[in-house]
């Protein structure tokens, strides 16, 4: 296992190097750069920028250098913990990400807990009560959850809440706490509003987990070893939870590490619809404006978390399934 971990870490470092190159190049692929977008916005609003100002900005942000030199400067600073300065917001990238990261992490963590708890309980119930009314009901709701996009559910919920109850469900805080500093009262206020994005974002993933767990568990509970355990007089809950459910959960355990990037990125479109101060809209805005340092830092972080999550999934899989070996 020790040799396996060392080998995987070396692979991760090499992969991150190539990912950083791809990320930087892809951000640069659209015609123009950040200054082009900035000047176009000023022109739209009726303002103009002289050539001296443009050249000064290019020099300030290093946009007058060749792309390979820009990349080397960026990756060298990243290795020293400096992600650069956002061209769009004129602030350090680490500061911008830090502001959004905590809220994004809390929303995504609650969403994951919702997905796993609800999906686990309903999936197990549907498999152990096959063709019952509850099974048909949850199957129907599962198909709706899989077929309707989360942002569409958000729009429908917002319209219903405002049209029939006069409630505005957007945002994460009450008006009096929007600009207030963090306190226990502000945290409690956030918890009162957080259920809306948690349920909406988690709906589709919960539906998928229910369907997959139900199918896997149904496949396991009809196998000979389960019939033998029942014949020996083992209690039904122990028969289900000790062996079949453990095997049925393997596909989820093998991909549980993929939840790490989700904790940071969140659901971009749904976050925009619900006006959530998360990192998703910030990343989208950075990509739209070709803010290469902000977008590059985000994408590099998501790539790292994906690789780290995959490693964690592999280790958990070896712990749960004794058939897995890493020689």
From TrEMBL:
Membrane topology: Multi-pass membrane protein
Transmembrane portions of the chain: 9-29, 101-125, 137-165, 194-213, 247-273, 293-320
Start and end residues of each ABC transmembrane type-1 domain: 101-317
GO cellular component, one term: plasma membrane
Coiled coil: none
Statement: the UniProt record of this protein carries the keyword Cell membrane: yes
GO biological process: transmembrane transport
Domain of life of the source: Bacteria
Protein name: ABC transporter permease
